[in-house]
Amino acid sequence: MRTQVGIVGAGPAGLMLSHLLHLQGISSVVLESRSRDYVEHRVRAGVLEQGSVDLLRATGLGDRLDREGLRHEGIELRFDGESHRVAMTELTGRAITVYGQQEVVKDLIAARLAAGGTILFSAEATRLSGLESPSPVVHYRYEGRDEELHCDFVVGCDGFHGVSRSAVPDGVLHTYERTYPFAWLGVLAAAAPAVDELIYAHHERGFALYSMRSPEISRLYLQVPADEDIADWPDERIWAELRTRLETVPGWSLNEGPILEKAITPLRSFVVEPMQWQRLYLAGDAVHIVPPTGAKGMNLALADVALLGDAFAAWYADGRTDLLDDYSRTALRRVWRAQQFSWWMTSMLHRLDADDPYEAKLQSSALRYLTTSPAYATSLAENYVGLPAV
Ligand code: RFL
Ligand code: PHB
């Protein structure tokens, strides 16, 4: 098979890139190791920055998002038995939209298939070759056979565990990373959200987050130790811990309901530089991971491929290489802003070291400062809703 741009991975990055290329008249094929059903039902991110919403609308994907997405103009911080609102829209003029990642993925798949695009599901890329030539190849397994996808460029959008990054020879890439001694236990519950806005709660037993997906579905997270086993968390224990960490304000209680799904995700900060080698471009979680506290992962993936869409358009329209050459440098500016913001939010809100009361005092002071200083709160708000330029 031959196409102009070969894309590995049908997450938000790969699918959005294929959609953007199609709008520019550039052909692409997306290879995805999982089934369509699997990627459409994988519960992950939920917060779209203003810039991501603008991109989805501008490329014809705004209809269901505008009908079902929940626009939020603030977030709540809970700590020391108090509750404070960060009025994001008042402070920045911008807002976030709560709309599940799997809904973005469904909308993108539907748009690509309606336009006659090719997404091969259950097609696992096994290796890349010829990246230094004008015609690189993605080798993949499909329906029990070894196949080849020949293209002008390969874009690795295959997430943290994908194969694309490892096609770059040793010594080229630099890795920057941080692991945290805790993870998030995330649950999806058939319970009406008890609030209109997200609650980020700092508690001596650990961080908790109250989010949602719709007027009927809540999405909740608990900080747990990094090596925690989900089998040790029956539903009753999860609800009890959520109540302890979130019901800290007099007269407020959460709504409980059947837990539809639960999983534990480790927290990690990770960046690989540069994001390109020869004819291979890397985007999204394949080259950078942020802890979810800043809600940046999916937004960064979309921002990467927005740059790539313009860069390939310039190359195919008039042979311009400047945008392709600048891709890594330009993308990394936003990536590092999100890294710092996500690390800062994570450090401020989680229980770090139980034996270090000094850390806990710093956290309380930072949280209190956010509630008294518009300048500090604006810094949080403008990063959270997404900076137009970085
Ligand atoms: P994805 O979504 O991981 O997609 C990669 C795809 O590549 C496929 N693949 C392969 N396909 C073919 N051949 C191979 N060899 C392959 N290897 C892998 C995989 O099956 C997959 O379909 O990466 P992408 O597109 O870069 O998107 C990144 C986002 O998914 C990720 O950053 C976010 O989910 C992170 N994240 C959040 N981001 C936000 O912006 N806001 C949030 O509120 C937010 N909350 C979260 C999150 C991630 C979480 N988890 C579970 C990691 C909350 C959680 C709990
Ligand atoms: C979510 O709704 O899944 C969510 C919201 C905010 C975050 C992370 C995840 O910071």
UniProtKB/TrEMBL annotation:
Keyword list (alphabetical) reads: FAD, Flavoprotein
**Signal peptide as annotated in the record:** none
FAD-binding domain mapped to chain residues: 2-342
Is rRNA processing included in the keywords of this UniProt record? no
Which InterPro entries does the UniProt entry name for this protein?
FAD-bd (IPR002938), FAD/NAD-bd_sf (IPR036188), RIFMO-like (IPR050641)
**Which NCBIfam families does the UniProt entry name for this protein?**
PRK08243.1
Q: What is this protein called?
A: 4-hydroxybenzoate 3-monooxygenase
